[in-house]
UniProtKB/TrEMBL annotation:
GO molecular function, one term: thioredoxin-disulfide reductase (NADPH) activity
Lineage, uppermost ranks: Bacteria, Pseudomonadati, Bacteroidota, Flavobacteriia, Flavobacteriales
Protein's UniProt name: Thioredoxin reductase
EC number: 1.8.1.9
EC top class, as a word: oxidoreductase
Domain (FAD/NAD(P)-binding) ranges: 9-301
Family: Belongs to the class-II pyridine nucleotide-disulfide oxidoreductase family.
Subunit structure: Homodimer.
Length: 326
């Protein structure tokens, strides 16, 4: 083996709640995990202001603060947290190979994938501006809806997520305006009829977002255009929710792992973190298009570490000895 190749017992890819929870468990099980943080250290939560629904934080916590605490907790037990981006993998053999930043090669006994998913945004400058300011743009109604109690909000999208989130928001907000770019929903009939039958949800079909308006700090409204008539109008709103889908960050695993049609990693054994490749486990949003919460990601991170530990123990009876072999 060349000097430049490192060997690790447990490599964790990704630094959201799933990755750090896996790291806490793996380091406490003497698996000496190495965790690569990826492009957005801390994951999606670093774009969230206040997290109020994670058990244990009774007064809430900011997303970035929570991720720093999770990192420190993982490091306290010995996790080697590193900056770096996994650019390539090869899961074809018994030793799983990964490359960091296209250069460094690592050979791993186990890999825990916690690469998450990224919410899609429209890409408008005004949307990105208020997203970065934390001033009223969000891709997660369950996370942020509470901040818009008794206010008027706009949501974009026509899939199951948009319908579910619009319905969730309708219970908190005075009014929800839903912008659907075509003349029909993509969502299942039952989800679509639920929003259609909710009194405080107004659905605008054939309507696209021109601009998210604001006062420089927070959102004050949305400029929309009817794509049939060309008519432009303004909607007053303090929140702008985007629910046009997520993209799981799984491109580098194509060809090795079973992915569903939208790119989510498929659990080989339902109810576990196992993938179709032995020794490769998945946790968090990379395999979850339904729940997508920090707490569910953390839970599956724990599962992945326990599954990896059991896999190592079954493979190598000496694993329980806490000294690494290399
Ligand atoms: P989808 O891809 O199903 O829907 C995305 C929606 O966003 C579509 O209506 C699409 O419009 C719209 N959209 C995309 N880009 C734009 C844009 N630039 N401007 C305006 N609108 C845009 O994503 P979802 O997240 O809704 O769902 C993903 C998967 O998860 C689906 O399989 C869904 O069934 C599932 N899911 C299931 C749930 C449940 O069962 N409880 C809950 C949530 C999701 P258009 O239709 O015109 O393409």
């Amino acid at each position: 083996m060349s000097d430049t190749i490192e060997r690790v017992k447990c490599l964790i890819i990704g630094s959201g709640p799933a990755g750090y929870t896996a790291a806490i468990y793996a380091s406490r099980a003497n698996m000496f995990p190495v965790l690569y943080q990826g492009e957005q250290p801390g994951g999606q939560l670093t774009t969230t202001n206040e997290v109020e629904n994670f058990p244990g934080y009774k007064d809430g916590v900011t997303g970035p603060e929570m991720m720093i605490e999770l990192q420190q907790q993982a490091e306290r037990f010995g996790t080697d947290v590193r900056n770096g981006w996994i650019t390539k993998v090869d899961f074809s053999g018994p030793i799983h190979k990964v490359w960091v930043n296209g250069e460094k090669e690592i050979h791993c006994d186990t890999v825990i994938i916690s690469t998450g998913a990224s919410a899609k945004y429209l890409g408008l400058d005004s949307e990105q501006k208020y997203l970065k300011l934390g001033g009223g743009v969000s891709a997660c109604a369950v996370c942020d809806g509470f901040f818009y109690r008794n206010q008027e909000v706009v949501i974009v999208g026509a899939g199951d997520s948009a319908c579910e989130e619009a319905h969730y928001l309708s219970k908190l907000c005075k009014k929800v305006t839903m912008l659907v770019r075509r003349d029909e929903f993509r969502a299942s009939k039952i989800m679509a009829s639920r929003v259609k039958n909710t009194e405080n949800i107004e659905i605008l079909f054939n309507t696209e977002t021109e601009e998210v308006m604001g006062d420089g700090q927070v959102v004050t409204g949305v400029k929309v255009k009817n794509n049939l008539s060309g008519a432009v109008s303004d909607i007053e709103a303090t929140g702008f929710f985007v629910a046009i889908g997520h993209k799981p960050n799984t491109d580098i695993f194509k060809g090795y792992l079973d992915l569903d049609e939208t790119g989510y990693i498929v659990n080989a054994v339902p109810g576990t973190s196992k993938t179709n490749v032995e020794g490769v486990f998945v946790s968090g949003d990379a395999a979850d298009h339904v729940y997508r919460q920090a707490i569910t990601a953390a839970g599956t991170g724990c599962m992945a570490a326990l599954d990896a530990e059991r896999y190592l123990a079954a493979k190598d009876a000496s694993f329980e000895v806490s000294t690494p072999q290399y």
